Amino acid sequence: MRKQAPSNKAKKYEKLGSPKSPRPPAAAAPSRPLQGRRLLIAGSGLLFGFIIYRQVYKKKPVSDDLAPQDFDFSARFNATASQFDEDVDCVEWLYGITKLRRKLVQQAQGNVLEAAVGTGRNSEFYDLRRIVSLTLQDQSKEMLEVAKAKWRETHPEYEHCKFIHGSALEPLPPPKRRKTDTPEDEGYDTIIATMSLCSTPAPSLFLRSLAGHLSLRNAAVQSDGGDRGPARILLLDHGRSYFSWLNHLLDQTASAHAQQHGCWWNRDIGKIAEDSGLEVISTKRKHFGTTWSLELGLPAEAKGVNRQQWLEDTRQKIAVQQAGVAQAHVEWKERMRKQEEARRKEEDLEAWRREQREQMKPKES
User: Which residues are CB-contacts of 99 (< 8 A; sequence separation ≥ 6)?
Assistant: First the structure.
């Protein structure tokens, strides 16, 4: 049977919509958890404001004159190692830092170095199926001991992990060579550093020194046949914000925070990465811009025939920096000695004045 063509009236209703057969209601837009997000943002803001309030108005500096930003805080970390995790666990979880740690560390592959490992807060996040060997380094002996115990508890059967006590500004041993390695393979495929730029004496040179330990091979093949890709440094740290008002608060409280916790939380992480001379592959920021995630790679001048010259230049810069730090510490200690001497003289003078006032009082008959 031949199909009848629609009439002009039917065509009209197709355009305008027939009153006898109304259009079905539009599908509801997919719901979004905006309320939960807003509550999370508001709660984070209130918590952050509370912490800043306590820092600005409640906490007092440990001393009136603080050490310069290149001061070595190893002694402080040694003293706080046993309770460090307990002090920061809650804050890192509330702010999502724990989640950021997991996301960053699970990218590690090949021969891996974690510099300034601290108490080993990243230990549980490593995907050992992607890792050939792991080296954990820290300058604080007590922190490293906590990291060792945590690693052995978390990965008791993993045998390719070693621990190094020392400064990352000094030469570090390379990973163990495999039979198939070429000279380009020497070095680490991934270097992890979390919450370390805020406490190292020379952050830009710290990054430059780490880069000297990167492998030059661009596509190293893993034992399971996977491609590890170019060697890189993965960073997670905290520092300056997008907002000037928040940076002002960080600046106002930086010295007291550094003496109490051993880190300078007002450093410009982006500027540190730029000053290091490394290639900045990617940068991501959270929490008003104060939490930084960066991926860094070797610059062109650190590869090929120029590598040895670049490494030598790095060593010379570190030597100059360390000499300057040593001199700055001598001057700072001398300034502290003079201030302490002046304080004692003032106390002695005040005691003498009280004694004189007591002697001048009329004696009772």
Answer: none
Query: Residue 315, Cα to own-chain centre: how many angstroms?
Result: 24
According to the model, what pLDDT value does residue 263 have? 83
CA distance 95 to 238: 12
Yes or no: say if 84 and 146 are a contact pair by the CB < 8 Å rule: yes
Q: Alpha-carbon distance 136 to 267, whole Å? A: 25
Contact between 65 and 339 (Cβ < 8 Å): yes
Take residue 59 and report the two structure tokens written for it: 């906490």
pLDDT band with cut points at 50, 70 and 90 for residue 237 = very high
| 217, two tokens | 């091979």
Helices (H), 241-306: 244-261, 269-276
Tens-digit pLDDT profile for residues 123-149 = 999 999 999 999 999 998 999 999 999
Choice between 365 and 138, residue whose per-residue pLDDT is larger: 138
User: How far is the C-alpha of 342 from the C-alpha of 348, rounded, in Å?
Assistant: 10
Length of the chain: 365
**Under a CB-based contact definition with an 8 Å cutoff, are residues 327 and 138 in contact?**
no
The phi and psi torsions of 168 (rounded to 5 degrees) equal -75, -10
Strands (E), 120-268: 131-138, 161-165, 190-194, 232-238
Torsion-angle region of residue 289: left (phi > 0), alpha (psi -120 to 50) or beta? left
pTM, to two decimals: 0.70
Question: What residues does 164 pair with on adjacent strands?
Answer: 137
Q: Supply angle C-alpha 288, 62, 121, rounded to 5.
A: 50
Strand ranges for the chain from DSSP E: 110-114, 131-138, 161-165, 190-194, 232-238, 279-286, 291-297
Query: Six-digit token pair at 229?
Result: 């890709």
Max CA-CA distance within the chain? 140
Q: How far apart are the C-alpha atoms of 359 and 61, rounded to whole Å?
A: 38
